[in-house]
């Protein structure tokens, strides 16, 4: 893998990780377009450069992260503690559990059956239609209707966590199902986005560590450390840009544009696959 391939893949990862368009699907498409074959190393690379996107959210949402840390440290007698931060941290863990359990059970099957462009195209299209249905039912002006992050209950968090499991299908988008899930359980749109991002930190950290442990040595042996570092750095910078833009955009315009984008992308890529211009 060349350094410019690593830069491009890192930019794609960062721009799409927290947008409801599927970073995994875009990375698979970009890898095929660059001629990078589907291997254990390339699949691991697509997961491990998420480290940069994780750092972006940790920096942008450091207030919430600090609040959670304060709440949990307080429970063990370090510092004054923060009750609201403890509840938020607990809700993040509750929402993470379903994906952690099912991910361990079905990871190999998912990688064997769903890491291809046809499954990704299907997920793009279905997810795009789902976004448009939700957007038509909920106007952009309703962004402030619903509960805040501090009003989130563990039952609501668990429901979001089960919906997050749908994102194990590449192309679905973890951000999509958790943001829509948050809205469906009663959170206002901005709170749903914030919870999606914070839940993403834990989920992506676990996925990155698991994949690095499992296929990391193969990835480093094939690509070396340089592409990993370059890709993660590019992902960090582009994720900062994407997250800041997305939060501002959603407050005024809603999610419909992402639905149209996904449907259009699915149709275009399906056409290229049907014409044998892309390798599935």
Structural features, described:
With 280 residues, the chain is mostly helical. The protein has helices at residues 3-17, 23-34, 40-48, 50-60, 62-75, 83-114, 117-137, 154-164, 174-184, 189-223, 225-253, 256-274. The chain contains 12 helices and no strands. It is globular, with a radius of gyration of 18 Å. The model has no long low-confidence stretch (mean pLDDT 87).
Annotate the secondary structure layout.
Blueprint: H1 3-17, H2 23-34, H3 40-48, H4 50-60, H5 62-75, H6 83-114, H7 117-137, H8 154-164, H9 174-184, H10 189-223, H11 225-253, H12 256-274
Descriptors for this entry?
280 residues; mainly alpha; 12 helices; globular
Shape field:
globular
Distance between the termini: 20 Å
The DSSP helix count reads 12
- Helical percent range? over 70%
H-E order: HHHHHHHHHHHH
Radius of gyration, in Å, reads: 18 Å
Measured by DSSP, the beta-strand proportion falls in under 5%
